[in-house]
């Protein structure tokens, strides 16, 4: 009995050591990926800031993000935006996603699957594929609006107030039951999901599902980022911090409401300041 007990203890200790080593490797790789994507994002944003923007009626500046460079085609402009967008999303979402993917890897490993790391990676790829599709839609909409605003000066003058309205609505969205449900989905994933992936196809579908729920949960924050400035490093840092805290902090819903209150205040300030300017 003592020999059996000792053998069992050795097996448990060995299993714990392997688990700890796997955890260190997993989060080490995630940290390197985050650092690389953040560095590329910072470099790209710094490069874009040196180009300035286009002064518009109403006293605001249109970012060059939504416009083609001289000699650039729309397909190449879209590809350039998507490349920047995906790298930026990795930097912004990985701090909160890494914990989800680790829980996914653990859950897959408990099913006896021999390659949980590979399936967890595919889940992550599926997740960012959804963000890529969203980026395509965002660029198409942003480029279309930029074209209209350049052709319609009267419409362009109202853009600052419209931006304030978007920020205000995004803040109010943080207080809704709908936001609470989406946030709960993201905070619990994939622990609540009994359909854990046992093959590549299931892992891909789980990644798509996680990405879809994450896009819904981040709808307000993403809208704020897009209207304030998709290449604004301060806006990116603030949105990243808000998303990460509401996903990982113990009181995630309170964090979401706090960030919503800040957004509501900012939106009201922007609307009031530009409305006052119009009266003069």
From TrEMBL:
UniProt key word Transmembrane helix: yes
InterPro entries given in the database record: PpoB2-like
Source species, domain of life: Bacteria
Pfam families reported for this sequence: PpoB2
Transmembrane stretches, start-end: 25-54, 74-98, 119-148, 154-173, 212-243, 255-278
Name listed for the protein in its UniProt record: Metal-binding membrane protein
Keywords assigned: Membrane, Transmembrane, Transmembrane helix
Lineage: Bacteria, Pseudomonadati, Pseudomonadota, Gammaproteobacteria, Lysobacterales
Nucleotide-binding listed as a keyword: no
């Amino acid at each position: 009995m003592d020999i059996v007990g000792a053998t069992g203890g050795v097996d448990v200790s060995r299993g714990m050591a392997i688990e700890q080593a796997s955890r260190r490797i997993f989060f080490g790789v995630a940290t390197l990926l985050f650092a690389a994507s953040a560095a590329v994002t910072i470099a790209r944003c710094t490069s874009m800031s040196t180009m300035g923007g286009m002064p518009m009626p109403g006293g605001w500046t249109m970012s060059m993000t939504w416009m083609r460079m001289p000699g650039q085609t729309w397909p190449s402009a879209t590809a350039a935006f998507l490349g920047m967008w995906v790298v930026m999303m990795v930097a912004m979402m990985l701090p909160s996603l890494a914990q989800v993917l680790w829980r996914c890897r653990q859950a897959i490993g408990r099913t006896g699957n021999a390659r949980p790391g590979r399936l967890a990676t595919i889940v992550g790829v599926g997740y960012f594929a959804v963000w890529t599709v969203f980026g395509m839609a965002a660029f198409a909409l942003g480029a279309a609006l930029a074209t209209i605003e350049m052709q319609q000066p009267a419409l362009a003058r109202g853009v600052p107030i419209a931006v304030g309205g978007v920020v205000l609505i995004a803040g109010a969205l943080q207080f809704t039951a709908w936001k609470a449900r989406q946030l709960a989905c993201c905070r619990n994933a994939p622990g609540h999901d009994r359909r854990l992936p046992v093959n590549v196809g299931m892992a891909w579908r789980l990644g798509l599902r996680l990405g879809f729920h994450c896009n819904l949960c981040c709808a307000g924050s993403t809208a704020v980022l897009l209207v304030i400035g998709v290449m604004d490093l301060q806006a990116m840092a603030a949105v990243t911090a808000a998303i990460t805290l509401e996903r990982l902090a113990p009181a995630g819903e309170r964090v979401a409401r706090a960030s919503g209150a800040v957004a509501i205040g900012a939106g009201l300030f922007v609307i009031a300041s530009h409305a006052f300017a119009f009266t003069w």
